[in-house]
Design a protein that fits this description.
Number of strands: 0
Distance between the termini: 103 Å
Strand content: under 5%
Order of helices and strands: HHH
Radius of gyration: 48 Å
Helix content: 40-55%
Length: 168
């Protein structure tokens, strides 16, 4: 037998009472209305004294300080749990103190580092060994040799141009 959820069978449901649908909860949860805070200009009506406003302001400041204390306690608890968990409680960037060096300290560090690199370079400098079978030294051409090559090249290009004229 197939029953639909929306068509109740009174005989099959012994808890079904008259006046209630089986899908409705007989004890519904109370409705909660969301709290809306609007920041608007408040006009002070006549007859309200400043002492009442001072009292209200004092109360608001006390509530704020209590809330800040509660937040600090919660932060401490969270840090404690994180340290137990092994994630480690590292201070945030906002709370970390900034550490700056003076110009003279930076200069001393720079000179020390340069000295370290100089000693490393001095130790790793290769010894000069006569290379066998390396490329020969670069040779220069005499002026007469260059002139001979230039005249030979001009003759080749003249021959190519003459062949192109004959073909055209």
């Amino acid at each position: 037998m197939v029953r639909s959820l929306y068509s109740p069978c009174r005989a099959a449901n012994p808890r079904h009472t008259e006046g209630h649908h089986p899908l409705q909860n007989p004890h519904p949860l109370p409705q909660v209305t969301p709290l809306r805070i609007q920041l608007v200009r408040i006009k002070i009506p006549e007859g309200v004294t400043m002492s009442n406003l001072d009292n209200a302001l004092r109360e608001l400041r006390e509530k704020r300080s209590h809330a800040q204390v509660e937040i600090e306690k919660l932060n401490q608890i969270i840090l404690g749990i994180e340290s137990l968990n092994g994630t480690g409680a590292t201070p945030s960037k906002a709370t970390k103190a900034k550490h700056t060096l003076s110009a003279s300290a930076r200069r001393r560090i720079s000179l020390a580092q340069k000295a370290r690199w100089a000693s490393v370079r001095k130790k790793s400098r290769p010894t000069v060994v006569a290379k066998m079978g390396s490329a020969p030294a670069k040779r220069t051409m005499s002026a007469t040799a260059r002139r001979k090559i230039a005249t030979a090249q001009k003759a080749r290009w003249a021959k190519i141009r003459a062949a192109d004229k004959k073909a055209a």
